[in-house]
Prior knowledge:
The complex is a heterodimer.
Chain A (H helix, E strand, L loop, with lengths): L8 E15 L6 H6 L7 E15 L3 E6 L5 H9 L6 E6 L3 E4 L12 H11 L4 H14 L15 H14 L4 E5 L7 H16 L3 E6 L2 H7 L2 E6 L2 E6 L1 H14 L20 E9 L5 E2 L1 E3 L3 E10 L3 E12 L4 E6 L7 E3 L4 E9 L5 E11 L5 E4 L4 E6 L17 E2 L7 E2 L1
Helix pairs in contact in A: 3-4, 3-5, 4-5, 7-8
Chain B lengths: L1 H8 L3 E2 L10 H20 L6 H22 L9 H23 L1 H4 L1 H6 L6 H28 L10 H25 L3 H14 L14 H8 L2 H14 L6 H5 L2 H25 L3 H4 L1
Helix pairs in contact in B: 2-7, 3-4, 4-7, 4-8, 4-9, 4-11, 7-8, 8-11, 8-13
Amino acid sequence: MERAANAAPAVVVDSVSKTFRLPQERIHTLKERALHPFRRSRYEPLQALREVSFSVRRGEFFGIVGRNGSGKSTLLKCLAGIYRVDSGAIYIDGRVSTFIELGVGFNPDLPARDNIVLNGTMLGLSPKEARARADAVIDFGELREFEDLKLKNYSSGMQVRLAFSVMIQVDADVFLIDEVLAVGDAAFQQKCFDVFNRLRDEGRTILFVTHDMASVKRFCHRAVLLERGELKLIGDPGLIADNYVEVNFGRDVGADGERPGEGPRFGSGLAEIVEAWFEDADGAPQTALPQGGRCTYKMRVRFHEAVDGADLAVLFEDDRRHPLFATSTSDNGKERGYDAGQDVVFAVRFDNVFAPGRLYASPWVVRSGGTDLLDRRPRMISAVVTGTRSTGALVDLPHEVLVETRQPGAPEAVA
Amino acid sequence: MSATSIETAAPGRQIRGPSALGGDFRRFVNLTRTLAVTDFKLKFFGSVLGYLWQLMRPLMLFGILYAVFTHVVKLGSGVRFYPVVLLSGIVLFTFVSESTGGSVGSLVDRESLVRKVHFPRLVIPLAVVLTAYFNLLLNLIAVFVFMVASGVTPTWRWVELPPILLFLGVAATGVAMILSAAYVRFRDVRPIWDVALQLLFYASPVLYPIEKIGNDHLERAMMMLNPLAAALQQFRHAVLDPSAPSAAAAAGGAQYLLVTLAIVIALFGLGFMYFNREAPLIAEEL
């Protein structure tokens, strides 16, 4: 029997719901209970999971993503058997190992070897197995010379290394991993990735809760997006990652973005920038702009008095006030005069090559050929560029990458 | 393939959430042992004299009580091997006190485990009882040294020792299950149990021999309802001094001891039922 794609699923989650009762006033002592015998403790129900269903195939690397409080950690704890589900059922085929935190059960007063046994036993090894693997763990963690040191004398990096080394020694068919990657330095994270790749290649099933969309896209075969305890989307990691970014940023635009008319403004007031907004490729106003997509910046300008010649312009900045791009009517030979009371819409259509993050627009109107500012609205509006390709650079231009291999003495070859 | 469709309908096992025992018995035993051994080891680490302190506590208590009750209040007069009777009483009481008192906060103290790993919850209080057993065994070595020094002669009746210790352990486990689970909800359990332990100490023939209790059988029989008292009495009779009344004799007949046994079984059963009911919710209530 080989592991075909249509083999029995490794994990089945069947309309699972979970509600926590958050006590409003907690009765902690018998006295309180005795004084108020008839007062039912009042609870505020918090529905952490609502009818969540999905299944994970054997050998699949499966991401669970969502905002804080979306229920993803609760889901993982239900899968791990730490919380009991209120309704629905969870089935898991095979041995499960849970990594909600690295180094569960570690005791600071014991040396490495004892902690390996302790942690290994908690994670499902027998003490004998754990002892047999202690050397492998110590070697993998590169902790040989600190073997006899008590854990409290370890640096935090060493503790993490030890914990991670134990974790990968645990044989399990299904791994449940919660944001383990959030800790550790770059080198450690790389090590995590290497191990995940190996586990994936070995056909282990991995369920992985994370905020890091880059790793979701890099490792997961599929993912689910949870929002307020409900399964919002399931499928391709790229799709999930894009939706996650939108869910994350789409909502709070406007909440802390500067509203028109509220920011500082400069100029004589002969003309007024009344409003400004971004549109997507379909011409719908948007506060979130997908990276790489076509979009439009628009602003409406009202001229209170006739102006012989006026130049309309806009500057895009990122949230660290780096100027990214500027353009104007004069740059494009579209400068002209306007009558009093005239309304003008100025539009800039562009390919969104900006890096993910907040994009600010600072428009202005100036009298032609001069410095007579009619109106300027610094950082008048903003939108969020959504995307997962974050290179650290300000823009992400369309490009291609070539690698040339040259053998000494051999004719040039292009790969 | 028909087998596949059945598997798809119910693949693997259902994850039912946390429980007291869990399905895998070997894992249960392994975890209990590992936690208990670790706790025990920690007593050695960290302090210079290590295990000696563990031994010192009952010995110091013994020294004080011995001085007071042989020289000031002559309670021990007329009791054969009074020092050993006193010491063994203290050691057995220490076991009960450590196992039950230590279990009270055990679940709360191990919060990080309970909230982060799936394992049978009963492991935690049980590990406390097991650690107390380890200490008891080492303390009993000191008792035996005293016995030899005092001239107690070994008899075949020493085989009663394991059942006595088991009897006491079952009672302590029952109480430990109730206390640890109740403490998650009610923090008053700790002071209440501290007082209860003191009561238990004086309600058991540790300081005084049972012979000094009244003349009527009723009082002694009532006393023997206390499992610790019965265990101590039987220990004294079987291990130290066959001429001392056995637990059955003190209770006025073996049939009365059945009531004590029933109490212990009820404690254990009740404790398990309560713990089992609370176990799935412990992680959420902490």
